[in-house]
Each structure stands twice: as structure tokens, then as C-alpha cells.
Design goal:
about 0% strand; mainly alpha; globular
Length: about 325
């Protein structure tokens, strides 16, 4: 059994599994914020955060071994117009984990964040140049395209809380890149969804990725400006409508077989929407928004728990479906 599990991890574990680290980090931030707003004192966020850090370390070791043994697989995925996007999940994890470390190890958090910010800028530049230098097929314009470029919106989440010279301007730079490209990519992807054949059922839940950029844009704007004005309110309410439009896709998760680990890419956008709702009720204390925030928190927790259970089951049964197989379904 141990040998089977090892083979499964090294051969079939796709890079998109780092989406689990992103989702857990986001859920940890959400529970921390809920504890502060509602005085829950449950420390659920700290437990989830510890799991996220341990998972990142474990996955990093596994992928170092995997790519050491099979570098060809790395090259193939980096050259693929869709699967390359999933590599951004590793870098975004480096941007989110410092938020878990900051209250306890501020220096380590700063070092990890700076590393992540540098890699995020370089990777976004690499992917964008790749898209611009080669003609892209419209059917390749999938929700996962959002991840590598709009990942720059993740930089201010933790960065704006660090004690670094010029950090505010640095965060605004990344925020500007991410926000503008979010509008461009959302337009391209929604256009593809409207004028091309619909996505296969197995990838329908990943449409929730489209709610992530505006949720991050709202939280980032509030953090960078220190206020929640009309512009911020418009972003939040539009994204809430978009989330309501697409949230029905999560009911497909238990119905679709086989389970794709790339579904973890859904977890962080859901957590981001939840965090934006919790930030919103800091200034808008109406009961309706309080209920919405609470429902989002519980729903996101339930979905991430489901994904975790499914992933553990696939690890012990060796029944992962690789990222490239998932991508092949879409082409």
C-alpha cells in the first residue's frame, strides 16, 4: 500500500493541488476575521492556518522529488496554454502563507512574501508574453486563465500589512496590474462562454474562479485606501450577484465522476468572496449582509471540507486524474 501511495503522489498529483493551500489560507483568514467581528474566540482560523502551512511544506517536498525524477512533465505543463496557469498556485501560496506567519514570525513572513512577490511579477510577465507572442485558441480561454495574471491582486492582501519601505506603492503597482487585467480577462472569458460551446460538466465548477478577482479587488481597494466608498460598494455588490449566478455550479461537485484535484482552484475564490463579505459588514451592519456573510463562511467551510475528504480518499486509493487529462477534456 505504501508503494502504491508513493507512486500515486509522484505520478498523478497535479500542480493544481496547491490550490488547496490557497483555499485553506483564505479560509483561515475568513475565520480570523469572523472571530474578530463576532467575538467567537474559536481559534478555528489558527488551526486551519497551521494545516495550510504543513500542507505547503509537504507538497513542496513531494513536487521537488517529482520534478527531479520527471522534469519532462514540468516542461510539458509549462508549455501548455492552459495547464501553465496552475503553476501560479504555488506562487500565490507564497503570498498568502506570510499572512498566517505574520502574528508569530514577522521576519520570516516578510522574507517569504518578498520571494512570492518577485516570482509573481516574473511569472505574470512570462505568461502574458507567452499569450501575446503566440496566437491563442478561443476555446483555451478558460477560467483558470485568471490565476497567473490576476494573482498579482493577492500581493496587497498581506503586503500592505508589512513594515517595508515603499510597501504601499509596491502594493498599488501590483493592484493596478491585477485589477486592469482582471477586467480584460473577465471580458475575454465571458465572451468565450457566451459564443463558444459550454464547458464540459467536469469543469463547470471552476467557473467560480471568475468571482475571485473582484472579491480581491474589493478587499484590496479597502485595504489600500482605508475606506469603503461607492466604488468599493459597486464592486462588492456586482461580485455578489456574479457569485449568486455561478454558485449553483458547486452542486455539481459530488455528481461529477471522476474527482479532479484542479477543483481546489474553486476554494480560494469562495474564500475571497467570504472575506469580502466580512469586510463589507465592518461598515454595513445590516442584518441581511450579516446573514450573507455567515452563510458564505459556513458554505465555504463545507466545500473545502468536501474537497479535503475527496483528496485524501484519492491519495489512499491512487485514483487521481492528472491536470493534463482534465485539460484534454476541454480541448
Amino acid at each position: 500500500m505504501e508503494n502504491n501511495i508513493q507512486i500515486s503522489l509522484l505520478e498523478f498529483l497535479p500542480v493544481s493541488i496547491f490550490g488547496a493551500v490557497m483555499g485553506l489560507c483564505g479560509l483561515s483568514f475568513a475565520w480570523r476575521l469572523a472571530d474578530s467581528l463576532w467575538h467567537l474566540n474559536l481559534n478555528i482560523g489558527e488551526v486551519i492556518g497551521a494545516i495550510a502551512i504543513l500542507l505547503f511544506i509537504l507538497l513542496s517536498v513531494v513536487f521537488i522529488i517529482k520534478f527531479w525524477r520527471d522534469p519532462v512533465n514540468l516542461v510539458n505543463e509549462l508549455n501548455h496554454p492552459v495547464s501553465v496557469s496552475f503553476y501560479a498556485t504555488i506562487i500565490i501560496s507564497l503570498l498568502l502563507i506570510p499572512g498566517l506567519l505574520l502574528p508569530y514570525f514577522p521576519l520570516l513572513a516578510t522574507i517569504v512574501w518578498v520571494t512570492g512577490a518577485i516570482f509573481m511579477l516574473l511569472f505574470a510577465w512570462y505568461v502574458l508574453r507567452k499569450w501575446l507572442d503566440h496566437q491563442q485558441l478561443s476555446e483555451n480561454a478558460l477560467p483558470v486563465w485568471i490565476i497567473p495574471i490576476v494573482g498579482t491582486l493577492d500581493v496587497p492582501i498581506v503586503g500592505n500589512h508589512l513594515q517595508l519601505y515603499g510597501i504601499h506603492e509596491i502594493c498599488i503597482f501590483f493592484y493596478g496590474v491585477g485589477f486592469v487585467f482582471a477586467i480584460i480577462l473577465l471580458t475575454i472569458i465571458i465572451s468565450r462562454l457566451m459564443f463558444q460551446p459550454p464547458l464540459p460538466q467536469a469543469t463547470q465548477p471552476t467557473l467560480l474562479i471568475l468571482t475571485g478577482p473582484l472579491a480581491l479587488a474589493f478587499s484590496g481597494y479597502e485595504s489600500l485606501t482605508g475606506m469603503q466608498d461607492t466604488f468599493a460598494t459597486v464592486i462588492f455588490n456586482f461580485n455578489l450577484f456574479l457569485f449568486a449566478l455561478l454558485v449553483s455550479k458547486i452542486i455539481l461537485l459530488p455528481k461529477v465522476c471522476p474527482f479532479f484535484v484542479s477543483w481546489w482552484s474553486v476554494s480560494f475564490p469562495m474564500a475571497a468572496v467570504t472575506i469580502s463579505a466580512l469586510h463589507y459588514i465592518e461598515h454595513q451592519s445590516g442584518m441581511v449582509y450579516q446573514i450573507i456573510a455567515g452563510v458564505l463562511l459556513l458554505t465555504t467551510t463545507a466545500v473545502i471540507s468536501f474537497l479535503g475528504i475527496q483528496t485524501l480518499y484519492r491519495i489512499f486509493t491512487g485514483t487521481f486524474v492528472s491536470t493534463l487529462k482534465l485539460v484534454a477534456v476541454n480541448l
